[in-house]
Amino acid sequence: MHGLINRAVQSFVCATYGYSCWLRVTEAAELGFVEFEAMLVYDDDMTQRVLDYLCADLRRPRSEILEDLGTYLVSHPNMEGLRRLLRFGGVTYVEFLHSLDDLSDRARLAVSDLHLPALELVEVSPAEYQLFCHPGLAGYSSVMVGILRAMADDYGALVMLSHADQEQEVDVISVVLIESAFAEGRQFELGGRKS
Amino acid sequence: MMGTDDLAALLETLCPMFVLVGADGQISRVGPTLQKLRPDQSMAGRQFPDVFELVRPRDVISLSSLLASAGAKLHLKLRETPRTALKGLIAPLPDGKGAVINLSFGISILDAVRDYALTSADFSGTDLAIELLYLVEAKSAAMEASRSLNLRLQGAMLAAEEQAVTDMLTGLKNRRAMDGTIGQLITGHLPFALMHLDLDFFKSVNDQFGHAAGDYVLQQAARIMVEETRNGDTVARIGGDEFVIIFPGLSDEDILSAIATRLIDRLQAPILFEGNTCRISASIGIALSSQLKPPTAAEILNAADLALYEAKRTGRSRHCLYSVVAGRQNGNAEHGVASQL
């Protein structure tokens, strides 16, 4: 598993549940270290153990925790850089949804050995979409639900999200757009990059 | 032929940074994004050279000569600050009715989006500007992560080197390890002997046959020293061709002399490296911890050093005991330097 993903989990746990929680989890998972390096690649098994022990420690189901991770990736000030990268996807929430088809390619363009599962958006109607999350990364669709929810807030859109169903290992997320300009949304300037 | 309005409408959709100029060089229309760069002053109605400075090609003055460079890349700058650099391409309109000049930011895009607060809507759908901006940010973030990893690895490497006790080339202990061993023996009040061994003629091997030969000779010399000492002895390389051997519990100068003799004998044997015969030898100074009161690491090393110097001075390929040097200093020259030649 790419270090960036492990690092995201670490950052999420430390910011949300505290460093002591992270220490307990890494010790229980017998990693042999405490800090993941963003630019190294680790055994997939390590990530699974960390998530298993995190669920046990928090006594919460994995899908819930991963959804919170997705929300964290967009909404926490630590992750401003990532939010900005996602906002490059489009001017409106719907444009952003359409840009998800390119997300794995965009990720690979930035970090060549970061392989994210393919996403495919299907427009059911202008107010209803289905996002197909292809296999390759267990729990990815749960993280995506959190990301989609937080990005809706970011754009000021009001949406209803649900894990619709699963078709042959492909997770389907249903996105119902209730109002595209429900709230102000957060600012995004192309030149607003911190330098 | 379509009218100016139709043409301008078409251009606004396709290239929002166009300039439409008449045959007299006057700007008739500009794209909305271009106008956004000078929000307080309409570009339309002004002379093209009054708004834009042509950086390249240099020798072009009039619109007609500019039209002659149709298809070539133009480099321009806005006349007033911020003097944003622009790239351009000129295409003449039919019947000598002027020209369309399409502009873009080129590499100045990063500053431009900040200076003019441009948004995605300011670029045409086919423009790669947004992708470029995305890539710059994504790559910067990835680079930052790599850089911080490099810094940490460098720190870890320095720390590891700091803690290393082995000489990489020979596999012997290094000076730090030697200091540690001497310190432990002194603290534990354990008597020991210390040999300071210096290879003779090593430099000429390096000069004659190169560093690879020199390295090989050092490795062979190290092997000999390990073979001629006991498991509990410490053999350390403390400089280029300088070695220290520590013998815990040994204080018999006859035995030490015999070991020194054997070491020099073996080190004098020719060493073959890639068809060349390398010849070295060694000089050795020997001191006992019991000869110094109180024994300190610096004093014992210094004593062995004095003996080594004496061995060198009297003709190399010899060993010398500190007791002899010290004895002669005290006017008691009962021993000479043991010769091995």
UniProtKB/TrEMBL annotation, chain A:
Signal peptide: none annotated. It comes from the Bacteria. It holds the Pfam family HNOB. Residues 2-157 form the Heme NO-binding domain. One of its GO terms (molecular function) is heme binding. PANTHER family: GUANYLATE CYCLASE SOLUBLE SUBUNIT BETA-2, SOLUBLE GUANYLATE CYCLASE GCY-32-RELATED. This is Heme NO-binding protein. The lineage of its organism: Bacteria, Pseudomonadati, Pseudomonadota, Alphaproteobacteria, Rhodobacterales.
TrEMBL record, chain B:
It comes from Ruegeria profundi. It comes from the Bacteria. This is Diguanylate cyclase. Residues 190-324 form the GGDEF domain. Pfam families: GGDEF. InterPro entries: DGC-Regulatory_Protein, GGDEF_dom, HNOB_dom_associated_sf, Nucleotide_cyclase, Rev_trsase/Diguanyl_cyclase.
